[in-house]
């Protein structure tokens, strides 16, 4: 599923798209997606789309894909400069978005494109191997 977002006011719409996508993954494809995972994917979408709007002119393209036991969140923007991932610093105010994304994702990558770049992060679908789609532990 993909969508283009033009303005920072549309970040909430990007989070809503992620929620809709994950509901579809759960209902149509039968893959496990717990409530905490839904929140985590929405957080990653919000951070990546926000960064694209802050640092690149023009629209950004959000793509969500379910593969194996993960959701891949990709955001393309027109700026070829890779994002600056700062070292953890509890005294710094702000600029913790990518630090958080990298902490909650199983993978994070930046790829240069013919125009701009694509930032991709993968979030594991289930909170653990012994949980069902609603996040309840299986016995």
Compile the SSE list and pairings.
Elements (H helix, E strand, L loop, with lengths): L1 E4 L5 H19 L5 H21 L4 E8 L2 E8 L19 H8 L2 E6 L4 E8 L15
Antiparallel strand pairs: 1-2, 2-3, 3-5, 4-5
Helix pairs in contact: 1-2, 2-3
Structure description:
- Helices cover 35% and strands 24% of the residues.
- It has helices spanning 11-29, 35-55, 97-104, and strands at 2-5, 60-67, 70-77, 107-112, 117-124.
- A five-stranded antiparallel sheet has the order 1-2-3-5-4, covered by helices on one side.
- Helix 1 packs antiparallel against helix 2 and helix 2 packs antiparallel against helix 3.
Q: Give the number of DSSP strands.
A: 5
Number of discrete helical segments = 3
- As a percent range, the share of helical residues equals 25-40%
The Cα radius of gyration reads 15 Å
- SS strand fraction: 15-25%
The structural class is alpha+beta
The average pLDDT value, as a whole number, equals 84
What is the terminal-to-terminal distance? 34 Å
The arrangement of helices and strands along the chain is: EHHEEHEE
State the major sheet: 5 strands, antiparallel
Low-confidence stretches: 129-139
Strand order within the widest beta sheet: 1-2-3-5-4
Question: Given the C-alpha coordinates, what overall shape results?
Answer: globular
Features:
alpha+beta; 5-stranded antiparallel β-sheet; 139 residues; 3 helices; 5 strands
Summarize the structure.
The chain is of the alpha+beta class.
């Amino acid at each position: 599923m993909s969508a283009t977002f033009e303005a920072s006011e549309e970040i909430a719409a990007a989070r809503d798209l992620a929620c809709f996508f994950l509901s579809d993954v759960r209902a149509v494809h039968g893959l496990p997606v717990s409530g905490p995972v839904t929140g985590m994917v929405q957080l990653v979408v919000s951070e990546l789309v926000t960064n694209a709007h802050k640092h690149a002119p023009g629209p950004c393209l959000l793509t969500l894909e379910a593969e194996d036991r993960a959701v891949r969140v990709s955001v393309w923007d027109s700026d070829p400069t890779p994002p600056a991932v700062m070292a953890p610093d509890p005294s710094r105010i702000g600029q913790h978005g990518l630090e958080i994304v990298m902490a909650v994702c199983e993978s994070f990558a930046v790829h240069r494109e013919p125009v701009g770049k694509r930032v991709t992060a993968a979030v594991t679908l289930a909170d653990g191997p012994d949980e069902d789609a609603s996040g309840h532990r299986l016995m």
